């Protein structure tokens, strides 16, 4: 085995950096979309309106039974078909990520909402607020404050999940690493480098989340 | 039998036991009382090494508990302990609770262990519940099973950590009665409790603790009749008005 | 939307056989990996709760290492990097003579990764038990090993059946990552059928239905196991999320 060659990393840094940027972008967009859609799903499930609640529950349970790769393949196949013309991997991957993560976010948010003391809701009702007002002004603000650490942890998981866009050759950090590795024939250096980069980012982020939670890791 | 010499203990920066010294002779029943946070439970747990001390020595039945090389599992097999929250193993029946340590520590055969367990469960009045799980028993029944569990090891002494504090009032007596019988049969007992009626009835000595110190250590009559320290007097007046 | 429906394609040869083969390999990877995950995970989980500081540190490091690197990267490390960094003789064997290298890499990767998640569940289960339980065991002279074996673990395992089932299910989902190193499990086969026939809807629906069936099966098995092991009065933890 030839010596560990660091130059292959340093020479390709700009290319890798672009990949990382895409990974971060996908993460940010999917977190945003996932939380918004997840909140809607959670509220629908808790609304008490049976048909819609059942629909939302079925959606969540369906997605949570499926591997992410399959969801990505689904939308990679479906999106161009529905739109009627070929579409780059980016849009289908993004849609897949948002719809996938929303299911997981909805579970977190649902639990968070249910943890808000019922007395608060009664107080809101007693003053004449309707369901959506109660959610917007009383329940959701409290729920989100409590859930923040868990939501952030899910974001870290999401960041790792974005590496799977590799399967549709979208040029995120993982794919970029792989391209360089194949091109230069330096798999050991590149994949080890990728592992270290992901580790540093995720570990640092998890430390920050723990500090936010205020103390001991669980 | 049990000797505690100048024991001090810290939890981090906080001192929970300060220079405690006392002793318990064979057959003696000693009640340890005091306000919450006085360190009485901690002191009790130091006797069988469940809590470690930073200063001082404790010798039980000739074994130095605080020594570096103390064989604690051996020693604990000779002591029985009863906890405030019973701590019965929820996944085992009452019978199995009493048999576990007999079989695994004393290496008794299953038949021996069961025979002894049933006899003890009968003695504490819960033989009918032998095959029930702890969640199916009342608090008083659970605690009596816990006492049987302690006795199953043929201990030289029994340690009780607020055995009735977690019980509903109507069940306190059934447990105290068992403990009184035990005392009258000559068992060496150290009992951390608020139950002064029990103390008056069977205790040979009362140890009063406050803020980690042993403030008073006197024979029962003396303690109740004429407590020497202000703290003890205050404590007694509050407690006795209750009962 | 312009699409030619053809559900019959799923039952034609060779596509039907491809699907079956995919299901077979999915199960083969998942079950073998689960054996590793459960045993190693239990050890690590227990290690994180014992009084020994070194054991706790090692266990903690293990969990942090495996959960901060994406599974895909880990898969590549096992398959591409490991044969290069081990002693030359072993590396040669791995690259040339080892049977079914994709399968072995996938099983090892998934097994050790999931072990870190199982470890967390086991740790949480043990730590959820009241301290008095350990003390009661110790007070009657049981050694630390005995306390774990007869008291803590029997209770902790019952308590964590729901989240463990989640992990079991997740291993099936994560088996799909093996396709990145060329193992033709279920998802790979579905994509393959799509490549050949353009009947993506049918192929992916088949795969989806099978994964859902697996999920339902796993939940059913959990209920049965839980019922068998149930002790009156003992509550269990909630099934975890992803």
Walk me through the structure.
The complex is a heterotrimer of chains A (218), B (243) and C (242). Chain A is mainly α and 218 residues long. Chain A has nine helices and no strands. Chain A has a single domain, classed as MetI-like fold (Orthogonal Bundle). In chain A, helix 2 runs antiparallel to helix 8. Helix content of chain B is 39%, strand content 25%. In chain B, 47% of the residues are buried. By secondary structure, chain C is mainly alpha-helical. Chain C contains ten helices and no strands. The mean pLDDT of chain C is 90. Helices cover 75% and strands 0% of the residues of chain C. Chains A and C meet through helix 3, helix 4, helix 5, helix 7 and helix 8 of A and helix 2, helix 3, helix 8, helix 9 and helix 10 of C.
Task: Give a short summary of the structure.
With 243 residues, chain B is an alpha/beta fold. Chain B has helices at residues 40-47, 72-77, 94-104, 110-123, 139-151, 169-184, 196-202, 220-225, 230-242; strands spanning 2-11, 14-24, 29-33, 55-60, 63-64, 79-82, 157-161, 188-192, 205-210, 213-219.
Please give the structural blueprint:
The complex is a heterotrimer of chains A (218), B (243) and C (242).
Chain A: H1 7-11, H2 13-46, H3 50-65, H4 68-83, H5 89-114, H6 118-126, H7 131-161, H8 173-184, H9 187-213
Chain B: E1 2-11, E2 14-24, E3 29-33, H1 40-47, E4 55-60, E5 63-64, H2 72-77, E6 79-82, H3 94-104, H4 110-123, H5 139-151, E7 157-161, H6 169-184, E8 188-192, H7 196-202, E9 205-210, E10 213-219, H8 220-225, H9 230-242
Parallel strand pairs in B: 3-8, 3-9, 6-7, 7-8
Antiparallel strand pairs in B: 1-2, 1-4, 4-5, 9-10
Helix pairs in contact in B: 3-4, 3-5, 4-5, 5-6
Chain C: H1 15-47, H2 53-67, H3 71-85, H4 88-97, H5 101-127, H6 131-139, H7 144-159, H8 161-174, H9 186-197, H10 200-229
């Amino acid at each position: 085995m030839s010596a560990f060659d660091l130059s292959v990393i340093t020479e390709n840094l700009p290319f890798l950096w672009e990949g990382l940027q895409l990974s971060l972008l996908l993460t940010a967009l999917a977190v945003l979309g996932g939380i918004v859609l997840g909140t809607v799903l959670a509220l629908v499930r808790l609304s008490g309106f049976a048909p819609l609640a059942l629909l939302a529950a079925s959606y969540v349970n369906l997605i949570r039974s499926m591997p992410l790769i399959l969801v990505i393949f689904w939308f990679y196949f479906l999106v161009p078909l529905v739109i009627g013309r070929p579409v780059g991997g980016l849009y289908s991957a993004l849609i897949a990520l948002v719809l996938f993560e929303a299911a997981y976010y909805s579970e977190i948010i649902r639990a968070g909402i249910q943890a808000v003391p019922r007395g608060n809701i009664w107080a809101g009702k007693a003053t004449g607020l309707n369901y959506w007002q109660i959610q917007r002004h009383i329940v959701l603000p409290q729920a989100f404050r409590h859930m923040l650490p868990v939501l952030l942890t899910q974001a870290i998981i999401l960041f790792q999940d974005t590496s799977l866009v590799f399967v549709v050759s979208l040029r995120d950090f993982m794919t970029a690493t792989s391209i360089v590795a194949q091109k230069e024939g330096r798999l050991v250096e590149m994949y080890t480098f990728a592992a270290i980069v992901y580790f540093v980012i995720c570990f640092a982020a998890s430390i920050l989340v723990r500090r936010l939670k205020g103390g001991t890791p669980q | 039998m049990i000797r505690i010499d100048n024991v001090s203990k810290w939890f981090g920066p906080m001192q929970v036991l300060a220079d405690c010294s006392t002793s318990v002779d064979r057959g003696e029943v000693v009640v340890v009382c005091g306000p919450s946070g006085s360190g009485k439970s901690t002191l009790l747990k130091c006797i069988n090494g469940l809590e470690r001390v930073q200063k001082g020595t404790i010798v039980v039945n000739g074994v130095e508990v605080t020594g570096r090389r103390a064989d604690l599992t051996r020693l604990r097999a000779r002591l029985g302990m009863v906890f405030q929250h019973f701590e019965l193993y929820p996944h085992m029946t009452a019978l199995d609770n009493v048999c576990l340590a007999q079989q695994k520590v004393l290496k008794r055969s299953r038949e021996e262990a069961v025979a002894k367990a049933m006899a003890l469960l009968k003695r504490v009045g819960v033989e009918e519940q032998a095959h029930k799980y702890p969640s199916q028993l009342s608090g008083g029944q659970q605690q009596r099973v816990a006492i049987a569990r302690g006795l199953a090891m043929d201990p030289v002494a029994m340690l009780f950590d607020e055995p009735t504090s977690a019980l509903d009032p109507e069940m306190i007596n059934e447990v105290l009665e068992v403990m009184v019988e035990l005392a009258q049969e000559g068992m060496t007992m150290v009992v951390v409790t608020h139950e002064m009626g029990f103390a008056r009835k069977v205790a040979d000595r009362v140890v009063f603790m406050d803020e980690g110190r042993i403030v008073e250590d006197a024979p029962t009559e003396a303690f109740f009749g004429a407590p020497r320290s202000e703290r003890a007097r205050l404590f007694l007046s509050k407690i006795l008005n209750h009962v | 939307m312009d699409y030619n429906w053809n559900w019959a394609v799923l039952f034609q040869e060779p596509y039907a056989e491809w699907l079956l083969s995919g299901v077979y390999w999915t199960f083969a990877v998942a079950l073998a990996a689960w054996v590793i995950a459960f045993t190693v995970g239990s050890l690590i989980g227990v290690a994180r709760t014992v009084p020994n500081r070194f054991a706790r540190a090692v266990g903690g490091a293990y969990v942090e290492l495996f959960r901060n690197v994406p599974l895909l990267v880990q898969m590549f490390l096992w398959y591409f990097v490991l044969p290069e960094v081990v002693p030359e003789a072993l590396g040669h064997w791995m690259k040339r003579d080892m049977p079914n290298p994709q399968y072995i890499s996938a099983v090892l990767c998934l097994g050790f990764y999931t072990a870190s998640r199982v470890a967390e569940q086991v740790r949480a289960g043990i730590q959820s038990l009241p301290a008095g339980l350990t003390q009661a065991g110790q007070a009657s002279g049981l050694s630390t090993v005995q306390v774990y074996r007869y008291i803590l673990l029997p209770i902790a395992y019952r308590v964590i059946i729901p989240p463990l089932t989640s992990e079991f299910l997740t291993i099936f989902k994560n088996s799909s990552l093996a396709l990145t190193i060329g193992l033709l499990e279920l998802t790979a086969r579905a994509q393959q059928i799509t490549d050949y026939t353009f009947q993506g809807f049918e192929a992916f629906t088949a795969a989806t239905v099978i994964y859902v069936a697996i999920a339902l099966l796993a939940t059913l098995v959990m209920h049965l196991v839980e019922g068998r092991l149930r002790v009156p009065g003992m509550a269990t933890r909630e099934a975890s999320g992803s």
